[in-house]
Design brief:
7 helices, alpha/beta, six-stranded mixed beta sheet, five-stranded mixed beta sheet, about 280 residues, Nitrilase/N-carbamoyl-D-aminoacid amidohydrolase, about 25% strand
Protein backbone atom coordinates (compact mmCIF):
# COMPACT_ATOMS: atom_id res chain seq x y z
CA UNK A 1 0.00 0.00 0.00
CA UNK A 2 1.19 3.49 -0.80
CA UNK A 3 0.60 6.21 1.83
CA UNK A 4 1.22 9.90 1.15
CA UNK A 5 1.42 12.69 3.72
CA UNK A 6 0.82 16.15 2.32
CA UNK A 7 2.91 18.90 3.91
CA UNK A 8 1.35 22.23 2.97
CA UNK A 9 0.86 25.75 4.32
CA UNK A 10 -2.84 26.60 4.68
CA UNK A 11 -3.64 30.32 4.76
CA UNK A 12 -5.65 31.46 7.75
CA UNK A 13 -9.21 32.29 6.81
CA UNK A 14 -8.87 31.47 3.10
CA UNK A 15 -10.97 28.35 3.17
CA UNK A 16 -11.87 28.10 -0.50
CA UNK A 17 -8.23 28.47 -1.51
CA UNK A 18 -7.07 25.94 1.09
CA UNK A 19 -9.62 23.37 -0.08
CA UNK A 20 -8.61 23.81 -3.72
CA UNK A 21 -4.91 23.55 -2.92
CA UNK A 22 -5.52 20.44 -0.81
CA UNK A 23 -7.32 18.87 -3.77
CA UNK A 24 -4.36 19.70 -6.00
CA UNK A 25 -2.00 18.00 -3.54
CA UNK A 26 -4.25 14.94 -3.25
CA UNK A 27 -4.34 14.70 -7.05
CA UNK A 28 -0.55 14.88 -7.21
CA UNK A 29 -0.26 12.23 -4.50
CA UNK A 30 -2.64 9.94 -6.39
CA UNK A 31 -0.57 10.44 -9.53
CA UNK A 32 2.40 9.17 -7.50
CA UNK A 33 0.46 6.03 -6.67
CA UNK A 34 -0.92 6.94 -3.25
CA UNK A 35 -3.96 5.01 -2.10
CA UNK A 36 -4.22 6.77 1.29
CA UNK A 37 -3.51 10.51 1.58
CA UNK A 38 -3.20 12.39 4.88
CA UNK A 39 -3.61 16.19 5.06
CA UNK A 40 -2.65 18.48 7.97
CA UNK A 41 -4.71 19.52 10.99
CA UNK A 42 -7.30 22.24 10.20
CA UNK A 43 -6.18 22.03 6.59
CA UNK A 44 -9.21 23.92 5.32
CA UNK A 45 -9.06 26.95 7.63
CA UNK A 46 -5.60 27.58 8.99
CA UNK A 47 -4.77 27.24 12.67
CA UNK A 48 -4.09 30.47 14.58
CA UNK A 49 -7.57 31.94 14.97
CA UNK A 50 -7.69 35.38 16.54
CA UNK A 51 -11.01 34.70 18.28
CA UNK A 52 -13.72 32.12 18.74
CA UNK A 53 -15.88 34.21 16.43
CA UNK A 54 -13.34 33.82 13.62
CA UNK A 55 -13.12 30.07 14.20
CA UNK A 56 -16.90 29.79 14.20
CA UNK A 57 -17.17 31.74 10.96
CA UNK A 58 -14.90 29.22 9.25
CA UNK A 59 -16.17 26.00 10.83
CA UNK A 60 -18.82 23.89 9.15
CA UNK A 61 -20.96 20.85 9.81
CA UNK A 62 -19.57 17.39 9.16
CA UNK A 63 -20.38 15.66 6.87
CA UNK A 64 -22.82 18.18 5.40
CA UNK A 65 -20.42 21.08 4.86
CA UNK A 66 -18.82 22.21 1.63
CA UNK A 67 -15.29 21.06 2.51
CA UNK A 68 -16.29 17.47 3.23
CA UNK A 69 -18.33 17.44 0.03
CA UNK A 70 -15.44 18.74 -2.08
CA UNK A 71 -12.89 16.33 -0.60
CA UNK A 72 -15.34 13.43 -0.86
CA UNK A 73 -15.80 14.18 -4.54
CA UNK A 74 -12.08 14.04 -5.25
CA UNK A 75 -11.66 10.86 -3.17
CA UNK A 76 -14.36 9.24 -5.27
CA UNK A 77 -13.01 10.53 -8.56
CA UNK A 78 -9.47 9.34 -7.82
CA UNK A 79 -10.40 6.15 -5.97
CA UNK A 80 -8.34 7.08 -2.91
CA UNK A 81 -8.83 7.39 0.83
CA UNK A 82 -8.25 10.79 2.49
CA UNK A 83 -7.81 11.75 6.13
CA UNK A 84 -7.91 15.51 6.62
CA UNK A 85 -8.19 18.04 9.43
CA UNK A 86 -11.24 20.29 9.48
CA UNK A 87 -12.90 22.83 11.77
CA UNK A 88 -16.30 21.39 12.70
CA UNK A 89 -19.39 23.00 14.21
CA UNK A 90 -22.12 20.93 15.80
CA UNK A 91 -24.85 21.65 18.37
CA UNK A 92 -23.41 25.06 19.27
CA UNK A 93 -19.87 23.72 19.83
CA UNK A 94 -16.70 23.84 17.76
CA UNK A 95 -14.38 20.89 17.30
CA UNK A 96 -10.90 20.39 15.92
CA UNK A 97 -11.81 17.35 13.82
CA UNK A 98 -10.64 15.07 11.03
CA UNK A 99 -12.67 13.28 8.39
CA UNK A 100 -12.07 9.97 6.64
CA UNK A 101 -13.23 9.86 3.04
CA UNK A 102 -13.02 7.09 0.48
CA UNK A 103 -14.04 6.08 -3.01
CA UNK A 104 -17.61 5.66 -1.74
CA UNK A 105 -17.65 9.03 0.04
CA UNK A 106 -17.73 9.99 3.71
CA UNK A 107 -16.81 7.18 6.13
CA UNK A 108 -16.61 9.00 9.45
CA UNK A 109 -14.84 11.56 11.61
CA UNK A 110 -12.91 12.02 14.83
CA UNK A 111 -12.85 14.98 17.24
CA UNK A 112 -9.48 15.82 18.79
CA UNK A 113 -9.34 14.45 22.32
CA UNK A 114 -6.37 16.36 23.75
CA UNK A 115 -6.46 20.11 23.08
CA UNK A 116 -3.25 22.14 22.85
CA UNK A 117 -2.72 25.68 24.14
CA UNK A 118 -5.29 28.21 22.98
CA UNK A 119 -7.34 25.47 21.35
CA UNK A 120 -8.96 25.10 24.78
CA UNK A 121 -10.44 28.59 24.36
CA UNK A 122 -11.98 27.72 21.00
CA UNK A 123 -12.87 24.06 20.81
CA UNK A 124 -14.67 21.44 22.82
CA UNK A 125 -12.65 18.26 23.25
CA UNK A 126 -13.80 14.99 21.77
CA UNK A 127 -15.13 12.48 24.27
CA UNK A 128 -14.29 9.21 22.55
CA UNK A 129 -11.48 7.62 20.54
CA UNK A 130 -11.59 7.34 16.81
CA UNK A 131 -13.56 4.42 15.43
CA UNK A 132 -11.36 1.87 13.74
CA UNK A 133 -12.42 1.80 10.10
CA UNK A 134 -12.09 -1.53 8.33
CA UNK A 135 -11.15 -0.57 4.77
CA UNK A 136 -9.70 -2.53 1.82
CA UNK A 137 -6.37 -0.88 2.65
CA UNK A 138 -6.36 -1.96 6.30
CA UNK A 139 -7.87 -0.98 9.63
CA UNK A 140 -7.49 2.79 10.02
CA UNK A 141 -7.78 4.99 13.14
CA UNK A 142 -7.22 8.73 13.52
CA UNK A 143 -5.35 10.92 16.00
CA UNK A 144 -4.70 14.67 15.78
CA UNK A 145 -1.44 16.43 16.71
CA UNK A 146 -1.23 16.64 20.55
CA UNK A 147 -2.95 13.24 20.80
CA UNK A 148 0.46 11.86 19.88
CA UNK A 149 1.74 12.84 23.34
CA UNK A 150 -0.61 10.31 24.97
CA UNK A 151 0.56 6.71 24.51
CA UNK A 152 -2.69 5.41 26.02
CA UNK A 153 -4.62 6.37 22.89
CA UNK A 154 -2.28 4.51 20.55
CA UNK A 155 -2.24 1.46 22.80
CA UNK A 156 -6.04 1.56 22.79
CA UNK A 157 -6.05 1.61 19.00
CA UNK A 158 -3.58 -1.27 18.80
CA UNK A 159 -5.59 -3.39 21.21
CA UNK A 160 -8.71 -2.57 19.20
CA UNK A 161 -7.13 -4.01 16.07
CA UNK A 162 -5.97 -0.87 14.24
CA UNK A 163 -3.12 -1.25 11.77
CA UNK A 164 -2.68 2.36 10.62
CA UNK A 165 -3.08 5.59 12.61
CA UNK A 166 -3.35 8.72 10.46
CA UNK A 167 -2.28 11.92 12.23
CA UNK A 168 -3.22 15.31 10.76
CA UNK A 169 -1.07 17.72 12.74
CA UNK A 170 0.26 21.26 13.21
CA UNK A 171 3.45 20.70 15.21
CA UNK A 172 5.12 23.70 16.83
CA UNK A 173 8.60 23.93 18.39
CA UNK A 174 8.84 22.49 21.90
CA UNK A 175 10.37 24.33 24.89
CA UNK A 176 14.17 23.96 25.06
CA UNK A 177 14.29 22.51 21.55
CA UNK A 178 17.52 23.38 19.78
CA UNK A 179 17.36 24.32 16.12
CA UNK A 180 19.38 21.29 14.99
CA UNK A 181 17.13 18.68 16.61
CA UNK A 182 14.29 16.91 14.79
CA UNK A 183 10.78 17.65 16.00
CA UNK A 184 9.92 16.00 19.31
CA UNK A 185 6.81 14.64 17.58
CA UNK A 186 8.96 12.60 15.18
CA UNK A 187 10.35 10.70 18.16
CA UNK A 188 6.86 10.26 19.59
CA UNK A 189 5.51 8.93 16.28
CA UNK A 190 8.36 6.45 16.07
CA UNK A 191 7.79 5.34 19.66
CA UNK A 192 4.02 4.93 19.14
CA UNK A 193 4.61 2.82 16.04
CA UNK A 194 7.37 0.69 17.58
CA UNK A 195 5.70 -0.01 20.91
CA UNK A 196 2.32 -0.88 19.39
CA UNK A 197 3.19 -2.45 16.04
CA UNK A 198 1.33 0.31 14.18
CA UNK A 199 1.90 2.28 11.00
CA UNK A 200 1.78 5.97 11.95
CA UNK A 201 1.37 8.52 9.14
CA UNK A 202 1.82 12.17 10.18
CA UNK A 203 0.99 15.10 7.87
CA UNK A 204 2.25 18.38 9.31
CA UNK A 205 1.99 21.90 7.99
CA UNK A 206 4.76 24.44 7.35
CA UNK A 207 5.10 28.20 7.39
CA UNK A 208 4.56 30.93 9.96
CA UNK A 209 1.00 31.98 10.76
CA UNK A 210 0.35 35.09 12.84
CA UNK A 211 3.79 34.75 14.35
CA UNK A 212 3.56 31.02 15.07
CA UNK A 213 6.15 28.86 13.26
CA UNK A 214 5.41 25.25 12.42
CA UNK A 215 7.82 22.33 12.36
CA UNK A 216 7.09 20.46 9.13
CA UNK A 217 8.99 17.13 9.12
CA UNK A 218 5.99 15.03 8.05
CA UNK A 219 6.74 11.31 7.98
CA UNK A 220 5.42 7.79 7.66
CA UNK A 221 6.62 5.26 10.23
CA UNK A 222 6.14 1.53 9.82
CA UNK A 223 5.52 -1.12 12.46
CA UNK A 224 9.22 -1.36 13.27
CA UNK A 225 9.27 2.24 14.43
CA UNK A 226 11.55 3.54 11.69
CA UNK A 227 10.53 6.12 9.08
CA UNK A 228 9.89 4.74 5.62
CA UNK A 229 11.33 6.90 2.87
CA UNK A 230 12.16 10.53 3.47
CA UNK A 231 11.21 12.74 6.39
CA UNK A 232 9.97 16.06 5.02
CA UNK A 233 11.83 19.33 5.45
CA UNK A 234 11.02 21.95 8.07
CA UNK A 235 9.89 24.59 5.61
CA UNK A 236 8.87 23.30 2.17
CA UNK A 237 5.50 22.24 0.87
CA UNK A 238 5.96 18.68 -0.31
CA UNK A 239 4.51 15.18 -0.42
CA UNK A 240 6.08 12.36 1.57
CA UNK A 241 5.19 9.00 0.07
CA UNK A 242 5.91 5.54 1.45
CA UNK A 243 5.20 1.94 0.47
CA UNK A 244 3.89 -0.02 3.46
CA UNK A 245 3.26 -3.72 4.05
CA UNK A 246 0.85 -4.66 6.82
CA UNK A 247 1.79 -8.33 7.11
CA UNK A 248 3.99 -8.01 10.21
CA UNK A 249 3.03 -6.21 13.40
CA UNK A 250 6.48 -5.44 14.72
CA UNK A 251 10.13 -6.36 14.41
CA UNK A 252 11.03 -6.10 18.10
CA UNK A 253 12.49 -9.59 17.97
CA UNK A 254 11.95 -13.12 16.72
CA UNK A 255 10.46 -14.33 19.99
CA UNK A 256 8.63 -11.20 21.10
CA UNK A 257 5.34 -9.43 20.41
CA UNK A 258 4.76 -6.02 21.97
CA UNK A 259 1.07 -6.67 22.58
CA UNK A 260 1.16 -10.36 23.52
CA UNK A 261 4.05 -9.75 25.95
CA UNK A 262 2.15 -7.18 28.00
CA UNK A 263 1.84 -7.97 31.72
CA UNK A 264 -1.59 -6.54 32.39
CA UNK A 265 -1.75 -8.70 35.51
CA UNK A 266 0.95 -6.48 37.02
CA UNK A 267 0.22 -2.98 35.77
CA UNK A 268 -3.49 -3.05 35.12
CA UNK A 269 -5.69 -3.19 32.07
CA UNK A 270 -6.72 -0.58 29.57
CA UNK A 271 -10.53 -0.80 29.26
CA UNK A 272 -11.72 -2.95 26.40
CA UNK A 273 -12.29 -1.14 23.10
CA UNK A 274 -13.99 -2.85 20.19
CA UNK A 275 -13.11 -0.14 17.67
CA UNK A 276 -16.58 1.42 17.49
Amino acid sequence: MQIACVQMAPRIGEKDLNVRRAIDFVTRAADLGAELVVLPELANTGYVFDSRAEAESLAEPVPDGSTTAAWSEVASALGVYIVAGIAEKADGALYNSAVLLGPDGYLGSYRKTHLWGDEKKLFASGDRPSPIYDTPLGRIAIAICYDLWFPELFRLYALGGAQIVCVPTNWVPMPNQSADRPAMANTLAMAAAHTNGLVVACADRVGVERGQPFEGQSLVVDQSGWPVGDVASRSLEEIVSASITLDARTSVGTHNDVLADRRADIYGRIPAFDGH
